[in-house]
Amino acid sequence: MEVLQWGVRALIVVAVLVGWHRYRYPGGWGPAFGRTYAPQRRELARARRHLTARAAQAWFQRTAVQLRLNSAQAAHRRRISAAEQALREAQNPGSGPVVDDLGTLVLRRHTLSIGEDEELPLAGLTVRIHHGPKSHHLTVTEADGQVHHVPLSQSEYEEIAVHAFVTRITNAARRDALFQAGLVDRVEAARAALAEAEGDTTREDAVRTELHAMTQQHRLDPEQAAALARLKSARQKWKDVTGRLPAR
What we know:
The protein is an alpha+beta fold and 248 residues long. It contains seven helices and seven strands. The strands form two sheets. The protein has a four-stranded antiparallel β-sheet with strand order 1-2-3-4, covered by helices on one side. Helix 3 packs antiparallel against helix 5 and helix 3 crosses helix 7 (222-242).
């Protein structure tokens, strides 16, 4: 049964090849396979090969330049995306990474969190310490005057650790004040960088110009025209002999 199946498949392949050959060399069995028409078949085959080879060469050249254009366009898009991300970060720097923590206080680069519900901007923030009999009391004052009280148990947190943490908050607040003061300039610089990235199509334009010039060159290629003329002549000769005009 398997041998029969392979035999059927082989017959199908042969039938397809014969049909294709007859399509390429129309006019019946004689023109397609007979010795009498062998010179005309060879001439037509050579003319087709020359034209195909020339077209393939031109295609590979254009494809290479097109790939370079695609690469330039992708690089341009990546540059724009990076500039857009930089602008978003300049406009909204967020809380920043965690710098330190103590009890319910979490110090980040731009904010101080008190528990899970309150996150205060660092710029303009001040912290004072008052030591009670059982607790360290931190008074956190925002730039707009709002006050928050944070108790820290003396049994859990040593006085020196509390002072060290408050010092880190104070230093971070000063750094963030400088950071916020330069925010407008950084946003403007990021906008300018984005505009420059969007407008800089120099590399793309150069490759696009090269591709256009190559396409024009191929369109006017004398060798391509000669190959077309040879194929046209071979096809006409075949028609004169067989009465059928073959496909290109």
